UniProtKB/TrEMBL annotation:
Protein name stated in the entry: Potassium channel family protein
Pfam family, one: Ion_trans
Localization (cell): Membrane
Lineage of producing organism: Bacteria, Pseudomonadati, Bacteroidota, Cytophagia, Cytophagales
Keywords recorded for this protein, A-Z: Ion channel, Ion transport, Membrane, Potassium, Potassium channel, Potassium transport, Transmembrane, Transmembrane helix, Transport, Voltage-gated channel
Species: Nibrella saemangeumensis
Entry membrane topology: Multi-pass membrane protein
Domain Ion transport stretches: 24-196
Length: 242
């Protein structure tokens, strides 16, 4: 049963992430809002089923606390609490949790859809985080108080891509939520940059090792050297025979 539900939930996870990006960058139409609400109900039912069958429910909740918060936040819109929280300046903080929860769900969906988590998985995951992170940065920074906000989603996407490449740009976040999201993206970019550098170095060293003219001795060259040594030993032993 779990296997039968896994594929639809993975697909809905990607749809949910696309709807989040659309909501943060351009807003949702009434039809898309209804679609998002329907997917949200499905996620709640799925989570409650997983909680019901979990042998250690408290441990399950601790592991999935971000999912719990991201599923609880859309209820504010249904119960008309968003206006009150907007007055208390709490809405953007909840939106940050929703962004992180949606990215986390997208990461799980991507991991479930790929059987082997190699270099291709890292590339797709980086694209996912860049696109979703740019939407979050645009939602937080377009209302920056000093007038130097990110003016469009395209500009935010460019800024996030530069952050991913560790090059950075002249703009730095002004809002607390934007700074928190920027910090998390920078941590991911730092970790991925080291992984990509090591992967590329291994690839080029491997190609150099396979070449006979390369500077690095590969497995083939070592085997040839061992063969020559063995032949020399046999020749020396034959000459020593009376």
């Amino acid at each position: 049963m779990n296997r039968w539900l896994e594929t639809p939930l993975v697909f809905l996870g990607f749809v949910w992430l696309v709807l989040l990006i659309q909501e943060l960058a351009y807003g949702l139409t009434p039809l898309l809002e209804k679609l998002g609400t329907g997917i949200w109900f499905i996620f709640i039912i799925s989570f409650l089923l997983q909680l019901t069958v979990a042998p250690h429910k408290l441990e399950f909740l601790k592991r999935n606390w971000l999912t719990v918060l991201s599923l609880a936040i859309p209820a504010l819109r249904l119960f008309r609490l968003a206006r009150v929280l907007r007055i208390l300046r709490v809405t953007r903080g909840f939106r940050l949790v929703k962004v992180l929860g949606s990215i986390n769900r997208g990461m799980r969906a991507l991991g479930a859809s790929m059987s082997r988590r190699g270099f291709g998985y890292i590339v797709l995951l980086t694209i996912l985080i860049t696109v979703a992170g740019a939407a979050g940065m645009y939602a937080f920074e377009r209302e920056a108080p000093d007038g130097t906000a990110l003016d469009s989603y395209g500009e935010s996407l460019w800024w996030t891509a530069m952050l991913m490449t560790t090059m950075g740009s002249e703009y730095w976040p002004r809002t607390p939520e934007g700074r928190a999201l920027c910090f998390l993206i920078a941590l991911y970019a730092f970790a991925v940059f080291g992984y990509v550098t090591a992967t590329l170095a291994t690839f080029f060293i491997g190609r150099d090792a396979e070449s006979k003219e390369g500077e690095v001795a590969g497995a083939q060259a070592l085997e040839e050297l061992k063969t020559e040594i063995r032949l020399l030993r046999e020749e020396v032993a034959r000459l020593r025979e009376p």
